[in-house]
Design brief:
Helix content: 40-55%
Order of helices and strands: HEHHEHHEHEHEEHHH
Radius of gyration: 54 Å
Length: 245
C-alpha cells in the first residue's frame, strides 16, 4: 500500500473511533461476493484487511451469505471454505434471504454494533452510504479500498464535534456563577412624574353664556330722561315768567 493511501486510511479509522466509538478488533461483516473476490486474488484476505483498517480485525459472516455460496455449487467450494473460517454472526432469519438484505438488516438504521462492511455489491454500498458511521471496504482491480466517508457521515461527525465543544450542564452552571454581575442601573435625577393611575382627571367647568348688552333699552331710557327734563325746564320757566309779571 502506498504511503499516501495508508495515511488517509489511518485518519479515516481514527475518525470512526473518535466519533462513532469503533474499537479494535474491528468486526468486519463479509458477504459472499467478497469471499469469491478474495479467492480469485490469491492473497491473505485477513491480513490485508488488517493492513487497510490499520488494526486487528475479526472477520464475520452470516448464515444467509454462506447459503448463497452453497447455492452456487461445488465450483465455489474454496469460497465456502474461506467463509467457514470466519466467525458466524447470527442474523435470526429462519429462512435464508439474499445477502444484501441480510447485511442491511444486521446493520439496521444506526450500525449499533459498529460493523465494518466488506462487500462487492454496488446496490448494498449505495444503501449503506445513507447510514452514518458505516466503513465500507471493497476490491477494485485487485486492490482493497476503504471508501471515503459519505456526506451523512461527515455531517454526523461535525454535529458530534459541536456537541463536544459545547459546555456541559455543570460547566454552564459554573460559568453563570462566575460571570460578573451586571452593572447597576443609574437612577434618573430630577422630579419624578406622577403616577398616571393616581392622578385625577380635571373636571371641565361649564361657563355661563355671556350677557349681551341691550343697547335699545339704554337708548330708550335716555330719550325718556331728556324728554322729562325738557318738560320740567319748560314749566319752571313759565313759573318764573308768571312771577315776574
Amino acid at each position: 500500500m502506498r504511503q499516501k493511501r495508508a495515511k488517509t486510511y489511518r485518519k479515516l479509522m481514527n475518525m470512526y473511533c473518535l466519533t462513532f466509538g469503533f474499537r479494535q478488533p474491528y468486526q468486519v461483516l463479509v458477504d459472499s461476493e467478497m469471499c469469491k473476490a478474495a479467492i480469485s486474488r490469491n492473497h491473505d484476505f485477513v491480513s490485508e484487511l488488517g493492513t487497510v483498517l490499520h488494526g486487528t480485525v475479526k472477520p464475520m459472516i452470516t448464515q444467509c451469505c454462506i447459503h448463497e455460496l452453497y447455492l452456487q455449487g461445488k465450483s465455489q467450494q474454496p469460497a465456502v471454505d474461506l467463509a467457514k473460517a470466519f466467525e458466524r454472526r447470527k442474523c435470526n432469519h429462519k429462512e435464508a434471504i439474499p445477502g444484501d438484505e441480510c447485511l442491511a438488516s444486521v446493520i439496521g438504521e444506526t450500525n449499533k454494533h459498529r460493523y465494518v462492511i466488506a462487500t462487492q455489491s454496488q446496490p448494498l454500498r449505495v444503501q449503506l452510504r445513507a447510514i452514518a458511521g458505516v466503513p465500507i471496504v471493497h476490491i477494485d482491480r485487485s486492490v482493497m479500498i476503504l471508501e471515503p466517508p459519505s456526506d451523512i457521515t461527515v455531517r454526523a461527525k461535525v454535529l458530534v464535534q459541536q456537541n463536544a465543544m459545547a459546555p456541559s450542564t455543570s460547566e454552564a452552571a459554573k460559568l453563570k456563577t462566575s460571570a460578573p454581575p451586571p452593572p447597576p442601573v443609574k437612577k434618573r435625577k430630577g422630579p419624578k412624574a406622577p403616577n398616571p393611575l393616581s392622578v385625577k382627571k380635571k373636571k371641565t367647568v361649564e361657563q355661563p353664556p355671556k350677557k349681551t348688552k341691550d343697547t335699545t333699552r339704554k337708548v330708550d331710557t335716555g330719550a325718556q330722561g331728556l324728554a322729562g327734563t325738557k318738560q320740567k325746564n319748560v314749566g319752571e320757566k313759565r313759573k318764573r315768567g308768571d312771577d315776574d309779571d
